[in-house]
Structure formats: structure tokens, C-alpha cells
Amino acid sequence: MTDEDGATCVLEVVLAAGSAAVRRALARVRRALMQCGLPEEACGRSEIVLAEALNNIVEHAYAGCAGGEIRLRLEVSASQIAVTLTDRGRALRGLDLPAGRRPDLDLSCDALPEGGFGWFLIRELSESLEYSRRDGCNFLTLRLPRRSPDLSG
Amino acid sequence: MDLGSHHCGDINIITVKEARIDASVAIRFKDAMREMTLGGPAQIILDLAQVRFIDSSGLGAIVASMKQLPTGHRLDLAGLTADVDKVFRLTRMDSIFAIHDSAEMAVRRAAG
After folding, report:
1. What does pTM read for this prediction?
2. Does A57 touch chain B (CB under 8 A)?
3. Most A CBs within 10 Å: which of B28, B56, B67, as the mutation test of the A interface?
4. How much is the ipTM here?
5. Alpha helices in B1-112 (DSSP H)
6. Which of A110, A119, B23, B92 is least surrounded, with the fewest CB atoms within 10 Å of its CB?
């Protein structure tokens, strides 16, 4: 299926909201991206972003609720990798995407953060993010460039 | 969580024998690290050469493994593959840990 921007849907999957199913889905995404001829670097970036987004849905949107499902749709175009995730869990707080600042590490060893890196990694590696809430569902679309961005900053 | 430990002189080399440290194994990883670092040498090298992927839960578990060490113990990392290195660099965690190209090089450096 190809639209006018040349984006092709290369994978559509519904997965259970659990860490084992997330692992299996990420393996399928990686295979699909490799079959599209994307370089290892882009596959790795995509897997990091998607792992964090899926973990957030499992741990926060569906926190403690069994039986949740996530729909994942992966599209690849000439310039972009786009993933849309849909779930029926809790909405993001304030119906807005978290700021995702890099956690401060200028601390003593005992005080170093063990979490809070998820949204930072998503924002750092994505080109654009869109979130909306409709009919009791969360829709999150993440877009990554096919080419490696400058990560030196 | 499959971890192996062997002592090389005064150094405890812990090898992660799995391809991923992610949300599904983060707690087990931290618990296994506690077991393998209790009562052993103060210098620990975590060999990540077989790990292809880490997420923020896995990163947090490595930080937690360092924080739970007995006083005076030190945890270095070795053998970061491309995607693992990317997560450490982006989060600046590469400034918290000493990172060696390989466990062998870390041992050689420690031996002076």
C-alpha cells in the first residue's frame, strides 16, 4: 500500500501490552526495516525509540491493567520511518507529550537517576512526534529520519 | 538472566550472555548483579560485548547495580556495541562510568 508521499506500510501488528510481547514486536520491526534496506544505524535508532514508546504504554497507559492491546503500524518512505501506536489505556497527563529533558547527572552516586530517560531518548532520536486522544484511544505517531542525524550535541 | 562471572586477579569480570537488557529482564539483571558482586573483588568489569540492545530500563538497572555495590567497590563497563553505546552517549551516562573497548583491555589497563 503506497500513498502519494511514497510511504509504504511495511508492518501492522496488534500486540499484548506486556514486556515479552514488546520484545517480539521489536524483533519484527527490526526485520521489516532491514528488509526495506535500511542501514543498521537507522534500525537501531528506530528500535530504541519504539522500545521506549511501547514501554511507556505498558507501564503508564495500561499500568496495572491486564488485557491491554497496542496496535503498531510501521511505514517507510524515501526520507522517513513513521510508526503510529494506538492504545486504549490512560491518556497522557494534560493530553500533552512530556518535555523529556535529559535527567541531571551532576549528582552523588547514591542520587543518580535510574529512570526518566525514556521520553528524552524518544525526543532526541525522533524528527517529529504527534499525540492525540480520540474515542478513548491514544494515538502516537513518531517520525524518524532515514539518514543519521548529528548526535554529537 | 544469564550472567557469568570469573575472577582475573583482583578483578571480577561479569559477562552478560544475552543479547538484550530491557524492561522484561531489568529487575532480574539487577538481582543477578547483586549476587555476583557480593563478597567478590572491589574492581568489577561488566562485559557487554554480547549485548546488542539496551533500553532505558536496562540502563537504569546498570545504574542501580552500581548504586547497590558495597562501599569502595567500582563498576566499569566494557565492549559496548553500537546501539548500546548510543544510549550511553545520548544520556551522558558515558560520563558516569569508565568505559573500555573490551574486557581484555580493561584488565590490561588495571594491571598497569
Report:
1. 0.94
2. no
3. B56
4. 0.94
5. 26-37, 56-67, 82-90, 103-111
6. A110
